[in-house]
Design brief:
Elements lengths: L1 E7 L4 E7 L9 H21 L4 E6 L8 H4 L3 E12 L2 E11 H17 L7 H22 L1
Parallel strand pairs: 2-3
Antiparallel strand pairs: 1-2, 3-5, 4-5
Helix pairs in contact: 1-3
Length: 146
């Protein structure tokens, strides 16, 4: 589940909120991290497809190293010091953003490479070809089984 916060269609900007991955999904933190990255990528791609100009993402500074924001082309804009009070303590907030220009000028390709490998390995033609080959292999296996 993913949420979009501060959605401002009149300003063509939004902020990614929480992204939750089901607790029983995947057997490793690496699989869960991959799912988180892909969910964020799909959300960003969708928002830019709606012609948004800016997407923001905020998080605790302690989560910055493991967050997919940097891996998906977001830029750290700064730290909001003492931004919130959580459990009676001041908490800073790291603010990231990506613009439609960043996305168009290589951000989307970079994100897809991070998620899926080299561009050739995730092109539609390659995926369709792999799907067709897999179907043919299944057909051959079924015929052998009969």
């Amino acid at each position: 589940m993913a949420s979009v916060l501060d959605n401002r269609p009149s300003c063509l900007r939004a902020r990614i909120g929480d992204i939750w991955i089901a607790p029983n999904y995947g057997t490793s933190s690496e699989q869960r991290q991959q799912a988180l990255q892909e969910a964020a990528y799909l959300l960003v791609r969708h928002l830019f497809g709606l012609r948004y100009r800016r997407i923001e993402w905020q998080m605790e500074p302690g989560h910055v190293d493991s967050a997919p924001a940097g891996q998906l082309g977001f830029t750290l804009e700064g730290i909001l010091r003492k931004h919130q009070i959580v459990q009676d303590r001041s908490r800073d907030t790291a603010v990231f953003s990506i613009t439609n220009g960043d996305w168009r000028d290589g951000g989307q390709e970079h994100a897809e490479t991070v998620l899926y490998g080299a561009p050739e390995s995730h092109s539609k033609a390659t995926l369709l070809s792999q799907s067709s080959s897999q179907q043919q292999a299944r057909s051959v296996e079924k015929k052998k089984a009969k």
